[in-house]
Amino acid sequence: MKLLLISDQEEPYLYDYYQPGRLAGYDIILSAGDLKPAYLRFLVTMANRPLLYVHGNHDTRYEADPPEGCDCVDGKLVVCKGLRILGLGGSMLYSGGPHQYSEKQMQRRARKLRRAVKKAGGVDIILTHAPARGYGDADDPAHRGFECFNELIEQYKPRYLIHGHQHLNYRTFSQRICQAGETTIINACGRYELEL
Fold it and tell me: pLDDT of 20-64, one tens digit each?
């Protein structure tokens, strides 16, 4: 199975300079947030595959202009093509936006999904916008990761945690991939291909 991971920056290769067939090999597209609704609509139309997304901290436009054809998994656990995917969008609270949360608020959101995780028998992928604290995040309030994501990793041991929010050009030594125990953490900024 092949997944296309996207977030934060529209890729000209997949949009402005798109050529037919470029999305043919993907089974699922996962968006970790902060992408234009038109971009998501274009990708789901051209790929004709499921596109699942969570909200980024800048995704306030989705209420007025939703990305039709795409499925919001923010605050849910869904099973798509046999993969159990838990979605928790948003970033750390820094300016009071609608998709910003304190650590306690995000903890509560995660706790609400416990029953669904138990019923599904676990989680394969956790799809977030912000990273887990200490894994590709920064120290400023807007770009801090959530401690409770580390708790989810320890408790559920998903194969992957996929996030956005951290543009790879923010810091000289930004890592796209790192490891937290049994979980591989991937920064989906721009685009990344994941083969399972």
Answer: 999 999 999 999 999 999 999 999 999 999 999 999 999 999 989
pLDDT of residue 92: 97
- Are the CB atoms for 103 and 133 separated by under 8 Å? no
For residue 124, the domain's CATH number is 3.60.21.10
Contact 179, 1 (CB under 8 A): no
Residue with tokens 């609400």: 112
Average pLDDT over residues 167-192: 85
Number of separate domains in the chain: 1
Residues 30, 74 contacting (CB under 8 angstroms): no
Q: Please name the residue that has the structure tokens 């194969």.
A: 159
Q: Which two tokens stand for residue 21?
A: 């067939």
Tell me, rounded to whole angstroms, the distance of Cα 92 from its chain centroid: 15
Per-residue pLDDT band for 175 (boundaries 50, 70, 90) equals confident
Residues in Cβ contact with 180 at an 8 Å cutoff, skipping those fewer than 6 apart: 132, 135, 150, 153, 161
Round to whole Å and give the CA distance between 98 and 55.
Answer: 10
Amino acid at 25: G
Q: Of 165, 29, 70, 72, which Cα lies nearest the Cα of 185?
A: 165
Give me the domain span that covers residue 10. 2-195
Tens digits of residue pLDDT in 84-118: 999 999 999 999 989 999 999 999 999 999 999 99
